[in-house]
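Render this sequence as a predicted structure.
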Amino acid sequence: MADDENARSASRGRDETEEERADRKWRDLLQELRVAQTGVQILFGFLLTVAFQPRFADLSGTDQAIYTVTVMLGAAATGALVGPVALHRMVTGKRLKPQTVDWASRLTLLGLALLVCTMASALLLILRLVVGDTDAVWLVALMVAWFVLWWFVLPVWLRMRERDRS
């Protein structure tokens, strides 16, 4: 039985048990989350202050609706990106590390998708005021494409390319 497990580990390129692999993946994920959590929390904090600015009342109903959606998306992104920490804390010691890592990874991807939506919504709100509706929509679409390309398309492409090589 141990020989089968060692053979499977070696085929993955590392000689590690399932628990060791889960520990390594968890450490990697925590490093990634530190970057994403900091960014989303700064953005969310900034968004919370906007409603208390004197000119907020001057925004059109549409802009206030966009702001509301942006704040909700920011809150959802923050929740998803902090979620892995809460998940880990709640199941620590229950021998669920591999499952925890899988679910935490899913929450992180959800958080990144929500962060893209938050960025798009915030950009739309700002750019509508600066360049007008039509130009704002095009600029936001370009930025969303930029984020999607580097955050999602490139990793999927690399995975598919590596799978085809194997």
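Summary. DSSP finds five helices and no strands in the chain. Residues 97-131 form the longest helix (35 residues).
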